[in-house]
Amino acid sequence: MGKILAYTYVPTLLLAAVFHFIFGQVDVRVFAFPVNIAILLILVGGLYVLNREKGECRWVVAFSSGYAGVMGVVLVALCCLLMVFSPGLKFQHSWIFLTVLLLFIGNLFLVILRYRGKNRIRFYLNHVGLFVMLVALVFGSADMVRMRAAVNIGECIDKAYTQEGIAYSLGYPLLVESFDVEFYENRMPAEFRAEVSSGDERRILWVNHPWHKSWKEDIYLTGYNTEAGSASEYCILEFVVQPWKYIVLTGLLLFVAGALMLLWGGKYRV
Amino acid sequence: MNWDIFPYFAIISMVLSLAGAGFALYRSERSIAAQFLSWTGMLVLGVFVIGFWRSLGRPPMRTMGETRLWYSLFVLIAGLLVYRRWYYRWLLLFTTVLSSVFCFINILKPEIHDETLVPALQSVFFIPHVTVYMFAYGILACAFLFAMAGLFHKKRSYLESLDNLVYLGTGLLFIGMLSGSVWAKQAWGNFWDWDPKETWAAITAAGYLTYIHLRFTRVSKSRWLYFTVILSFLLLQMCWYGYKYLPSSGESLHLYNLTE
Q1: pLDDT tens digits, A238-252
Q2: Torsion sign, CA atoms B196, B201, B202, B204
Q3: Model confidence at B2, in pLDDT bands (50, 70, 90)?
Q4: Which of B201, B196, B189 is nearest to B251 (CA)?
């Protein structure tokens, strides 16, 4: 089984390294909707058909085994170690890491399809939760847009900028009506708030309290002129568009339920 | 109740816990005295934590010293719970020593503790996220001690208890990580950003997941299983405080200690 897995993982990762050498880092925007959906359907559809038609094939057995799970987890951990020890590499944007994640997702999907063991509810909650969460985070990252705008108090804006400096239309006007900072006695900021409005809607933004503008968009207050304090003439707003947000949350809730069952049951009791 | 009186509470707690550990060590049967003394030691530290919380006007979870305080308390609690479950005579001594080491660090390295709490920490997720993580660290410290004992005695018999501790600790780790993920979305806009602390949390979870899945493969030698738990515990130390000493930590959004 180890050999089959090595024959699968090593060439796949080498191919990813070649991609990395040729194309550089992954440009996630290439995989934005509907490309990400198409790739996801091909991946899970292909594995589903393969499992149904060739379920006894040695490769399918090996790729859906606990060994493949361990290999996937260890590979993810090794990639993470590279990220923390060499942050300059930005390994999280590499083809190799993307491939490791896709192999891991594929392994999870097959394991879910084939599981016939004990403690099924706990097993499905943990594995389906992790699968949904990973799919939504990996495939959904292509559709995520983060934009910022430094807005003068009293100013109305209708566009914001990505980190690369690309301007996006917000699709609505946003007015910053007022801004205020509260300080502790030692002059450390305790809280900063901005009152914003868009048409008839009006909200107060502060840290940990974004405005859920729509099912996919949230507006955050992220900064201000710290030297000026309450007299800051502007504040910084961040606009996060994340269409896969609720899918991530669904996976996350399933996973939390699975983790709770892990606490309750331990290894031998459920 | 301010930080100046911490050494008194810490020393009383340490003495009581150590006396409890001594009873546990020298009594072959289940020792009620050991449990009573350990509970009392834990209670003394617990009373300080509650009083300190009240005097600060915020949860004492911001600085490293404050998280060490919780860790000292939760290691004692975890040790006592595990002792009540399996009655390993040596366990209370090790958890008491571990807790005492962190208390001593806090006595020798007093920090400035004030009421300031950066805006990002003012969230409903702050208390559950930190306490769940600290309790996980306490449970996994016990798992580490079991793995060391198993490696030292070259026996497989510790694995069953180790399994239960790792399941419990990993379950708590995941709840901490997932609650942190929802909090990150609320505070910073995304569930996961590959911040150094988050990345170390993923590495730590991967370590314990490797152990859990290796157990299902049923071919791994016990010393490799013990080694996996020991390595995972070392990775956990990196996740808790070690990451701060790496070059990548400068980018971390998790550096809240304004007074250090």
Answers
A1: 999 999 999 999 999
A2: positive
A3: confident
A4: B196
CB-CB: which of B123, B171, B200 is closest to A262?
B171
* ipTM at complex level: 0.94
CA pair distance B89, B107, nearest whole angstrom: 29
The structure tokens listed for A65 are 């085994």
Give the domain extent around B157.
124-260
Q: How far is A14 from chain B (nearest CA, A)?
A: 23
Q: pTM of this prediction?
A: 0.91
Residues of chain B in contact with residue A130, where contact means CB-CB under 8 angstroms, are none
Length of chain A: 270
Q: Which of residues 119 through 158 in chain B touch A, CB cutoff 8 A?
A: 119-120, 122-123
Mark which residues 207-236 of A lie under 8 Å from B by CB.
Answer: 207-210, 218, 220
The domain total for chain B is: 2
Residues B59, B27 share a domain: yes
Query: Which tens digit of pLDDT belongs to each residue from A80-106?
Result: 999 999 998 899 999 999 999 999 999
B215 part of a folded domain = yes
